[in-house]
Design brief:
single chain; alpha/beta; Endonuclease, Chain A; six-stranded mixed sheet; Restrct_endonuc-II-like; DNA damage
């Protein structure tokens, strides 16, 4: 049972953005101030990555912890109403994210995923930008930045990141 009527819920859901979110804009501003240039929402790439840094053959995906199910994150709660619906939706999102990362990697792109929880405070945005700058220079194929967690993975694709 929902606590608000259908019209109100519809209006609330319509207000949820898929691009140009606050965390994404904060990261974009910080990276731009450091002289990094990028294209937004690359329509020619799988998944339309949030930031495309062609110079580095790298993309940055800014993921919301709730929608993309950041594992062990306090912001990745599951609504108590219609749990089957939400679980199916979240599973589709996770599956699509993995497929997009795979397609980008096979096409020779390096992929960084920055979780929303790592961009909540100004100092977190600065720290994430520091990590991203180091990653871009390193040539590593994959990076994940979450609240207090950073993971760099070796490439499963021959010739990328070696």
């Amino acid at each position: 049972m929902d606590v608000v009527d259908k019209t109100t819920r519809s209006r609330m859901m319509a207000g949820i953005r898929s691009k140009d979110t606050r965390p994404e804009i904060a990261l974009r501003r910080e990276l731009h101030s450091r002289g990094l240039r990028y294209r937004l929402h690359g329509k020619d790439l799988p998944g339309k990555p949030d930031l495309v840094l062609a110079r580095y053959k790298a993309v940055i995906l800014v993921h919301g912890c709730f929608w993309h199910r950041h594992q062990d994150c306090r912001y990745a709660s599951t609504p108590s109403t219609r749990p089957e619906f939400w679980q199916a939706k979240f599973e589709r999102n996770i599956s699509r994210d993995a497929e997009v990362r795979d397609q980008l990697g096979q096409a020779g792109w390096r992929v960084a995923t920055v979780w929303e929880c790592a961009l909540r405070k100004p100092q977190q945005v600065i720290r994430s930008a520091d990590i991203l700058e180091t990653w871009l220079a390193s040539g590593e194929p994959e990076l994940t930045i979450g609240e207090e967690k950073v993971a760099v993975r070796p490439s499963p694709f021959p010739g990328i990141g070696s």
